[in-house]
Specification:
The protein is α+β, with helices and mostly antiparallel strands. It has three helices and three strands. The longest helix is centred in the N-terminal third of the chain and has 18 residues.
């Protein structure tokens, strides 16, 4: 996992904790479970050519968009972002995480 992706998950949890500690734990668990499920079938995600030309796949869980490199073994998670963000912001974040 890219260090930025680990920070993303921590940040998501901290944001949700402001309202509910239990919900924050559940969302973090669901994100990590989704990432684990990508390992045996890394190409089950979809590409977002509107966001990046890199060979990344995307998977959504809750409102989070998981961006990962399916060709790596295990798949390398590059970012975990709020899927409601502007695609240009997502593009900029991914560009900064080589």
């Amino acid at each position: 996992m890219h260090p930025g992706a680990a920070s993303d998950i921590t940040g998501i949890g901290e944001f949700i904790e402001e309202d509910s500690l239990r919900a924050a734990g559940r969302v973090r668990k669901d994100i990590l479970d989704a990432i684990r499920k990508l390992v045996p079938f890394p190409y089950q995600g979809y590409q977002r050519t509107d966001i990046t030309s890199r060979p990344l796949c995307f998977w959504t869980t809750h409102k989070s968009l998981i961006a990962y490199a399916p060709d790596e073994m295990p798949p390398l998670v590059i970012a975990v972002l709020d899927g409601r963000r502007n695609p240009r912001v997502i593009e900029a974040i991914l560009r900064g995480r080589q």
